[in-house]
Design a protein that fits this description.
single chain, about 500 residues, alpha+beta, 14 helices, 10 strands
Length: about 500
């Protein structure tokens, strides 16, 4: 029995190499094997009833238009032996039709669409132009170019403007240095050292402001000279001055000793400057209440006006030499301000009314316009030298000027009136401040009583507070009775 079973097993083993060789012979290369694997629907093929017509045929691979030359090579290499003795393949198109006719049409839906899509792939590509904002050209960086150009322009203007202001300041100092050193013992103290030392140079506050401090002269505590140039280092300011021109200025502030100036307030300058100073300055608004008057009486140009506390002061200040200085240099004079009550600009209402009179000093103020109306050259600084001579003359003039008896009494009455008006204005404020303090004191006393933990002690504190309030009321009633008795 076992021998009978071994015979079929041996026959099966012998047939395996033969079938494997046939498989390898049919697929000599990898391409044929791939084509065989692509035939996914071979198992659904309808076989004919006649077994003699069955042929060992392989379903043709799908033909793609993009790989036509590869298919041609496959057709040359692929050979199939037909049992019916056919010599070769039929036409490829007819063969495809015969094979596809054997399959179920529903299984191959979309094959025609695939062929259409493959044909559409042969259409030529249309290359569109790249948008302008994506192109790599200089036009794409116009914003960056403008920003860099503006930055370079600002830097260049800063350097040029700063250097020009420095040259103008040095030109002014060179032209006035001899005059200042002949009238002051100390010229150019920067205030860094404990002892006063004459540096002989200007002190730069910033790119357009230069200061010079002078002291060591009779009847004069000191003189501060401030050169206020235009902001030439600022490009925006330069563009603004094209629409609204301005000029450089020299401001001089002389502080006199208390015994070297009498009691008066006086100012002369352009009409526009006088109206502005009368509105802004504390002393001019209080002691020169009248409108600016014309200086034609003293031979001054029509463009200038005078503010004075009294007529006697105007007659004493405007002598022939002073009128000569002002008339010949009227285009350079902005304002001249003499005051023994100088305290600076007025205190604005939003800042609060002060409870005491501001501190005052006897001061001479001069404001001069530099020629050139912004287009100033270093040579224009020499034209300001006569005005510095006028400043020196004004110091000596004010020291010698003394009011008569009537003028002195009028000046004293004016100062008493200003002080009284100030006290009236601040009286209500002082009352409000006192009332606020009393209310805060009462609030603190009530909080102290409420925070007391002992009820008995709390009751005693409340009674003591009521007795104090009652005493205050009785005192006020007694004062009112006394006033009524005195009135009777």
């Amino acid at each position: 029995m076992q021998g009978l079973l071994l015979v079929p097993a041996l026959l099966l083993l012998l047939t395996l190499p033969i079938s494997r060789g046939r498989y390898n012979d049919d697929f000599d290369d990898g391409e044929d094997l791939a084509e065989f694997d692509d035939n996914d629907f071979a198992e659904f093929e309808d076989m004919s009833d006649d077994p003699a017509t069955e042929a060992e045929t392989i379903p043709p691979s799908r033909v793609f238009p993009s790989s036509q030359h590869i298919d041609d090579e496959d057709e040359d290499e692929a050979t199939v032996e037909l049992e019916d003795g056919q010599d070769g393949f039929e036409d490829s198109e007819t063969q495809d039709q015969d094979i596809y006719s054997k399959y179920d049409q529903e299984e191959f839906e979309g094959i025609g669409d695939m062929e259409k899509t493959t044909h559409s792939m042969k259409d030529p590509l249309i290359i569109h132009t790249v948008p302008a904002h994506l192109q790599n050209s200089w036009e794409s960086y116009y914003m960056e170019i403008l920003m860099v150009t503006g930055l370079l322009a600002y830097i260049m203007n800063y350097i040029i403007g700063k250097n020009k202001n420095s040259r103008l300041a040095q030109a002014w100092f060179n032209s006035h240095r001899e005059l200042l050193e002949s009238n002051f013992a100390l010229v150019g103290d920067d205030g860094t050292s404990k002892e006063a030392v004459s540096t002989g140079k200007l002190n730069q506050e910033n790119e357009h402001i230069y200061n010079l401090w002078c002291s060591g002269r009779v009847c004069c505590e000191g003189m501060l000279i401030q050169l206020k140039f235009l902001k030439r280092q600022d490009l925006l300011n330069v563009l603004a001055r094209m629409m609204r021109p301005a000029c450089d200025q020299v401001q001089i502030k002389v502080t006199l000793n208390d015994e070297d100036m009498d009691t008066f307030v006086f100012a002369v300058g352009t009409k526009k400057a006088m109206a502005r100073l009368q509105k802004e300055m504390q002393d001019l608004s209080e002691f020169c209440g009248d409108k600016p008057k014309s200086g034609a009486k003293y031979g001054l140009p029509d463009a200038l006006a005078i503010l004075s506390e009294m007529g006697e002061v105007t007659d004493g200040v405007m002598d022939n030499k002073m009128v000569h200085y002002i008339t010949n240099h009227a285009d350079k004079i902005e304002s001249i301000h003499f005051s023994d009550q100088f305290s600076g600009p007025k205190v604005m209402q939003e800042e609060g009314q002060p409870l005491k009179l501001p501190e005052t000093k006897k001061t001479l103020l001069f404001t001069f316009n530099v020629p050139g109306m912004g287009n100033t050259s270093p040579k224009d600084m020499d034209a300001l030298l006569p005005l510095m001579n006028m400043v020196i003359y004004s110091i000596d003039k004010v020291k010698k000027l003394r009011l008569n008896r009537e003028g002195k009494q009028k000046a004293d009455r004016n100062r008493a009136r200003v002080e009284e008006n100030f006290l009236k204005q601040t009286h209500a404020q002082r009352q409000e401040a006192a009332q606020t303090r009393r209310e805060e004191k009462k609030r603190a006393e009530k909080e102290r009583i409420m925070n007391e933990e002992d009820p008995e002690r709390q009751r005693r504190l409340e009674e003591a507070a009521q007795r104090r309030e009652q005493k205050k009321i009785e005192k006020k009633q007694m004062k009112m009775k006394q006033i009524k008795v005195k009135a009777m």
